[in-house]
Amino acid sequence: MLREHIFHKLLRRAYRLHVAVDEGTGPTVVLLHGIAATALTYTYVIPPLLTNCRVIALEMLGFGSSPKPDWKDYSIADHADSVLGTLRSMRIRGPIILVGHSMGALIAVEVARRRPKLVNQLFLLSMPLYKTSTGQQSAESKRLDSAYERVYAYLLANPTLTLKRAEFVARYIPAAAGFELNAANWLAFERSLGNTIMGQHTMAYASDLSMPTHLYVGRLDPLVIKSYLKDFVHGRDHMQLTTVNAAHEITELYAKLVTDDIILAVEHLETGGA
């Protein structure tokens, strides 16, 4: 505890995340999972990539086997700091291909805008984009954001019920691979939901991303407002949005589409962008 107080609280050094996977050789692909999840989110993504590249799957601050400090806000800055600090400690200098799913996509955007020379290409899967912090909302977007805020507020106000439902999902719904919400990560879930997801500025950061950016969304995804993703890529030739026959989770079909595109990006990186 004393070391944590000095090293992390006083010196503001980032926490080192648990590296769940570090396998393969070649260009580096870094995978960031979402809220209340683990690296198992990428169960169908990792194997096809190992023949072409080095795959690093991190577990986000507060989740999986990563540190769970109770004094952190679990803001987008906290999550991005821990990702960048971990990659630094692993001597990953780039260029990398950065992949984020759900909240991990929001974190990936923050990492890429901070370190554009580190990130060669960006893959954003099922990104829960909201306009709550842009200050330029239509009546319709305010209505949509308000609806999600009410749902999320209900989940946070009823932790016992939320945890019971989470246990059911993790146990009986195979598609929810990597989903993990329990008493141990509740604080990280609560603060990440409020400070990283609902308190986001991600929509305003689209213009900060100059690298090729690939977005994916499931046709049946209940957690993503698809019109916001369209707004995010609108007028930006280096961005593309692909719709997948899936919901929020990364199914085998979803993974196949994404990994095919990542392998093309890896080949592009190996040839020096030629």
**Strand order, largest beta sheet:** 1-3-2-4-5-6-7
Overall residue-averaged pLDDT value: 91
Low-confidence stretches: none
What is the number of helical segments per DSSP (H or I, 4+ residues)? 9
Globally, the shape reads: globular
Task: Name the assembly state.
Answer: single chain
The biggest beta sheet is recorded as: 7 strands, mixed
Secondary structural class: alpha/beta
For the CA atoms, what is the radius of gyration? 18 Å
What is the terminal-to-terminal distance?
51 Å
Binned, the helix content reads 40-55%
Q: Strand content of the residues, in percent?
A: 15-25%
The ordered H/E elements are HEEHEHEHEHHHEHEH
Compute the number of strand runs: 7
Give a verbal description of the structure.
By secondary structure, the chain is an alpha/beta fold. 41% of the residues lie in helices and 15% in strands. A seven-stranded mixed β-sheet has the order 1-3-2-4-5-6-7, with helices on both faces. The protein starts with a helix and ends with a helix. The model has no long low-confidence stretch (mean pLDDT 91).
Note the topology:
Blueprint: H1 2-10, E1 18-23, E2 28-32, H2 46-49, E3 54-59, H3 76-89, E4 96-101, H4 103-114, E5 119-125, H5 139-157, H6 159-172, H7 186-197, E6 213-218, H8 226-233, E7 239-244, H9 252-270
Helix pairs in contact: 3-4
